[in-house]
Amino acid sequence: MASDHYFSASPASAENLRQIRVDLNGRSVELTTAGGVFSPDRLDAGTAVLLANTPAAPAGGHLLDLGSGWGPVALTLAMQSPHATVWAVDVNERALDLVRRNAANLGLPNVNAVLPDGVPDDVVFRSIRSNPPIRVGKNELHGLLERWIPRLDERSDAWLVVQRNLGSDSLQRWLASTFEHGYSVHRAATGRGYRVIRVRRHGSPPTTPLDIVT
Fold first, then answer.
1. Where in the chain are the domains?
2. CB neighbours of 4 closer than 8 A, spacing ≥ 6?
3. What is the full DSSP assignment across 2-16?
4. What is the pLDDT of residues 118-160, one digit of tens each?
5. 180: which residues sit within 8 A by CB, 6+ positions away?
6. Distance between the two ends of the chain, CA-based, in angstroms?
């Protein structure tokens, strides 16, 4: 169906479960994917660039994979930081089911795969990693980032990977102007036509979920 996208809440396409083998955190692992989710047949090139150009996750606290898909980033964070709580957030229920299945199969009990409203309001993140859903449109994307980046803990980073020809440079400019006070924004890496953008929070974290920096 034309309206059935990887960012659909309940994909109408056939599930068509499949097994793929990918390298995550230095391990070759077999994972389950399905139709109706992002990049079901392979590790997406942008996600691979993100994983290759970000530091090891903090050892503890809360970590966020925003737009998790079937879970390569969340699973990597959970393997790197077994004592941290990893939140895999997506609007696609099928994708979240796959994250739960894959985390269970890999013995990673520290992964919580939830819809956006499933993250408690008082949680702040030691790190955010995201291959954001650019194709949802600029307004939706900006709203997504305005919701989650202010929930970074102080002295913590968000790492975003965006394809150059899908507007990475304009997104970086928007981030720098939107998160002007208490943050810094710069390009951390470039590879395979993608940019990795780092957003660092320097100031204090929000005291309520309504404290949105603009």
1. 18-30+41-201
2. 11, 12, 13, 36
3. TT--TT-SS--S---
4. 999 999 999 999 999 998 999 999 999 999 999 999 999 999 9
5. none
6. 37
- What is the fold of 18-30+41-201? Rossmann fold (3.40.50)
Buried b (16+ CB within 10 A) or exposed e, 58-68: beebbbbbbbb
26 sits in the region (left: phi over 0; alpha: psi -120 to 50; else beta) called: left
Please say whether the beta carbons of 31 and 16 come within 8 A. no
Q: Which of 214, 182, 185 is nearest to 198 (CA)?
A: 185
Residue pLDDT, tens place only, 68-102:
999 999 999 999 999 999 999 999 999 999 999 99
The neighbour count for residue 172, using CB atoms within 10 Å, is 19
